[in-house]
Design brief:
alpha/beta; 4-stranded mixed sheet; 28 helices; 31 strands
């Protein structure tokens, strides 16, 4: 007999160990008859080696595991390939912090080789904890194939890709702007930049117009007053032009001022010059569409070396790019000697204060406009990021993007939901060169060596580089390898094929590439998904995955982003410790159909109750001697309830299979919930009780066997979503009846024929279920005490209904909690009527409820609903509330309104029924 409750804390580690030991996580052996459709593969989005399991991981890996377990049970050779990412900047930061905390020397004092050795030691001792945490979630990855983005095989693949792309002219070295982190001394990707809103200001500076080529002063007429139509009515003569900036320190690097080509105010100044204050540099006024006549003065200072937009203007206008900041964010005069020595070596923010003070002192500061604006910060360093002009390695992403675009346009790879294709297309159609070099030590070191005269030799090994150098020199020369490492996303872009052994021609590549699905988040569609598409097609000649399933973002129950500062973070490991992995997994699946998943612990606890419901149903079945029978033929069952549950199970199997195949995990979980809770537990087992307790031994034997068979099939259907409790029940229920052939994880997915759906049984039991549901609903609506058993009468029932009444009288009495079931020519006095199955049914309530008190109760509750409706309508009718409140708050109010309106309608119907008594 089953224990009273399922204890996940004891069972889950034991069950996972059994799965691993069974070898079923690995793909089954290839069969001679296997075709492409007989393999299913998926690569895990590699979590950072420094990471710990968070709710996003829990969601993403639950969905992948559902797919892997489902296709494994369908008989396919399933490869779910796991691994971790070396996470360059994150890992280096962790180790450096540990060194600092221990009072050790810095990495630069230690030296590169010693530091890298220390990071590998840290990885061996502490890295990869998330791999064990994924096991706790139930992830059925093939751990024998686990990869690491810095392992030797992937390192070889990265070098080969770099060298080949360089030979093809698709990797090159260039001086461009990057996101520069002055703390970590490295370029970082857009994904590592956090946009924060901060208090700041626009400083309005008056740049004096420079004399013309003949030395004559330059002035112009600037409008200062306008009529109602916006036409200028007054002007003043100016010998300056006003620009506004949030970063005054960058003015030291200004090389131009831009105005819009159609801005009439400045039309006569285009081609003229200004004299840059402090440095005295003569810089041109240029026309460019980037300048917005409606913002500020309409004139903008251009600093090509320190602003991404300005860099573009500078390119178009032929302006020089002058770097006035060093790698630490300090003022430098390396690019231009006209920067006053007083500022050289000054921190950027100290320079800002000094420049503003000087502008005020000299009179060219015209206004300080306080504002809130968004400033980029390093997500790990927390410092303000600088657009910085530096030499870096780049990939010509525009060329590689074209096949990746075409593949999705023509359906070689599809996105689910399809709407996410828009993000993919928008980024690829406007793609910029991809900066792939990082000024770090932990990562794939760039396979490029420099000769004595600056020559660059790109090769897979230093030996190959030396052979190249011999062509330029008569003798051996010293070569120095590039100090930089590759962007982490570079090696991740090769993940689908490098993990399967490329560049070698391996059996895994032949069998499992391209992969079937990729499950990932929307925020890395362009950082990772698009780049895998580019690299996969370029090196493998076909897309890396046939379908991309985008999962939503997990938020708190109010729809707010989870953060430690808000104290609203749900720790999945804590949930697993307390409630087990299955409730968490089921919650993730059933909520996965929205972009923003509102998660609460209470929701997870509710789905723990779902597991408990299943466990109790299995115990009930055991107590009623329902066990599997050798040779039981479900196709030949005769009892109506057994033919009915067989059909309901068949429909559930169809719904679950189609939903999982379609990547609609919420629909799959919803179908499972409805079948297990509403159909099997609430109805079938209730309908089976009289049979179990009856005298018809044949009916009893058939129903016992049918209950056991249905439980078995249910465990199979539920296993991909809730693997632990189903595997435990599979083992426990297998102790009775014929011996099991193996673990549930390796069982065959049920595929039930359409013939199992019995229309007559469905109609009859459906009639009974609807009737009892109507009775229960009416009792609740009319506040009938639970102990009361009113009589029920069918008004002039037809022959079919009369026969059904006779067959199911005892069930109606029990399940509907009525005192008698009869028929009448007309509804009795004091009865409430309703329609069920086409028949009029009367429930006699006279003398059972206090009509006056009930009427007062209903009127009072209706008044409460009306008050709520009025209050919420007032809020939603206020444009300021709708425009200013957070979207989740507005949605919450709309949901509250809909709930109140539905409640009012229901109570008004009850009040109308009362009036008829």
């Amino acid at each position: 007999m089953l224990e009273k409750t399922f204890e996940p804390q004891a069972a889950e580690p034991r069950l996972y160990a059994q799965w691993e030991k069974s070898g079923l996580f690995a793909p089954r052996a290839a069969a001679a008859t296997d075709g492409a459709a007989d393999a299913y593969s998926i690569v895990i989005p590699p979590p950072n080696v420094t990471g710990s399991l968070h709710v996003g991981h829990a969601l993403n890996n639950t969905l992948q595991d559902i797919l892997a377990r489902y296709h494994r049970m369908k008989g396919k050779a399933v490869l779910w390939l796991p691994g971790t990412d070396h996470a360059g900047i994150a890992t280096q930061m962790v180790v450096e912090r540990q060194m600092a905390a221990a009072g050790n020397i810095s990495r630069r004092d230690m030296g590169r080789d010693a530091f890298i050795e220390k990071v590998w030691k840290w990885k061996a001792e502490s890295g990869g904890a998330i791999v064990q945490q994924l096991r706790r979630l139930g992830a059925s990855c093939d751990w024998s194939r686990e990869r690491f983005t810095l392992d030797e095989g992937l390192n070889a693949a990265v070098r080969k890709v770099f060298v080949q792309l360089h030979k093809e002219g698709l990797i090159y070295r260039d001086k461009r702007l990057v996101n520069w982190d002055p703390h970590f001394q490295t370029a970082i990707s857009d994904l590592e930049v956090e946009q924060r809103e901060v208090d700041g200001a626009y400083w309005h500076f008056a740049y004096p117009l420079a004399p013309d080529e003949d030395g004559k002063p330059v002035t112009y007429e600037h409008p200062i007053a306008f009529d109602e139509d916006g036409k200028a009515t007054e002007w003043e003569t100016r010998d300056f032009i006003v620009v506004a900036t949030t970063r005054p320190e960058t003015m030291l690097g200004d090389t131009g001022v831009a105005v819009h080509p159609e801005d009439e105010r400045y039309a006569g100044l285009i081609g003229k010059f200004v004299t840059l204050p402090i440095v005295g540099r003569r810089i041109p006024i240029v026309a460019d569409d980037y300048a917005d006549p409606t913002k500020g003065s309409g004139a903008v200072k251009i600093t090509p070396a320190h602003d991404f937009n300005d860099f573009g203007v500078g390119k178009r206008a032929g302006l020089p790019s002058l770097n006035i900041l060093d790698a630490f964010g300090r003022i430098t005069d390396v690019d231009t000697a006209d920067v006053p020595s007083d500022y050289v070596g000054m921190d950027r923010f100290a320079a800002r204060k000094a420049i503003v003070a000087r502008a005020e002192e000299e009179g060219w500061l015209r206004e300080i406009e306080k504002t809130k604006h968004v400033v980029p910060h390093g997500d790990r360093s927390g410092v303000v990021i600088e657009p910085w002009l530096t030499d870096q390695w780049y990939v010509d992403a525009k060329v590689l993007a074209q096949p990746a675009l075409k593949a999705v346009e023509q359906g070689d790879t599809v996105f689910e939901p399809k709407s996410y294709e828009k993000i993919y297309f928008e980024w690829l159609r406007n793609i910029e060169p991809w900066c792939i070099s990082r000024q770090l030590w932990w990562g794939h070191r760039i396979p490029a060596w420099y000769g004595p005269n600056g020559e660059i030799y790109v090769a897979e090994t230093e030996e190959d580089a030396r052979e190249q150098a011999m062509a330029d020199y008569d003798s051996e020369v010293a070569l120095t390898q590039d100090e930089d490492v590759l962007d982490t996303w570079f090696s991740s872009a090769l993940w689908p094929f490098s993990t399967m052994g490329w560049p070698e021609k391996t059996e895994d590549l032949e069998r499992f590439y391209p992969t079937s699905d990729l499950v990932t988040a929307a925020d890395i569609i362009f950082f990772w998904v698009a780049r895998m598409m580019m690299m996969g097609q370029h090196f493998m000649g076909e897309v890396p995955f046939k379908r991309v399933i985008i999962n939503g973002l997990v938020r708190d129950e109010k729809g707010q982003k989870m953060s430690k500062s808000k104290g609203n973070v749900i720790d999945p490991l804590g949930i697993i410790d307390e409630l087990g992995a299955d409730p968490l997994r089921f919650t993730m699946a059933i909520l996965s159909g929205t972009r923003d998943i509102k998660l609460s612990k209470q929701r997870i606890e509710g789905y723990r109750n779902f597991g408990t419901k299943l466990w109790n149903a299995a115990r009930f079945s055991q107590m009623n001697e329902a066990q599997r029978v050798e040779g039981f033929d479900v196709a030949t069952v005769e009892q109506t309830i057994n033919r009915w549950i067989r059909g309901e199970l068949t429909k559930a199997e169809r719904a679950v299979s189609e939903a999982i195949e379609g990547g609609r995990f919420d629909d799959a979980a919803g179908a499972l919930y409805r079948f297990v809770w509403n159909v099997f537990c609430d109805w079938y087992l209730e309908l089976a009780k009289p049979v179990f307790n009856g005298a018809d031994e044949a009916a009893k034997a058939e129903t016992r066997a049918m209950t056991a068979w249905t439980l078995d099939q249910t465990l199979k259907l539920l296993h991909p979503v809730m693997p632990f409790i189903t595997e435990e029940l599979w083992a426990e229920l297998g102790k009775e009846g014929p011996a099991r052939e193996g673990l549930l994880i390796g069982a065959e997915w049920p595929v039930l024929p359409n013939a199992f759906i019995d229309a007559s049984a469905e109609a009859e039991i459906g009639w009974l279920v609807d009737l009892v549901g109507e009775i229960r609903g009416l009792r609740a609506e009319m506040n009938v005490p639970p102990s009361a058993k009113p009589p029920l009468a069918f008004v002039a029932p037809d022959a079919v209904t009369a026969e059904r009444l006779a067959r199911h009288r005892d069930l109606i009495l029990t399940l509907g909690r009525v005192s008698e079931v009869g028929s009448a020519d007309a509804a009795p006095t004091g009865a409430v009527t309703f329609v069920s199955g086409g028949s009029t049914v009367a429930l006699s309530l006279a003398g059972i409820i206090d009509l006056t008190a009930e009427r007062a109760r209903l009127e009072k509750e209706i008044a409460v609903f009306e008050s709520d409706i009025g209050h919420v309508n007032k809020k939603l009718g206020n444009p300021n509330f709708v425009s200013r409140a957070a979207p989740e708050v507005v949605d919450e109010q709309r949901a509250k309104l809909a709930e109140a309106e539905a409640g009012k309608v229901k109570l008004q119907a009850a009040l109308t029924r009362l009036a008829s008594l």
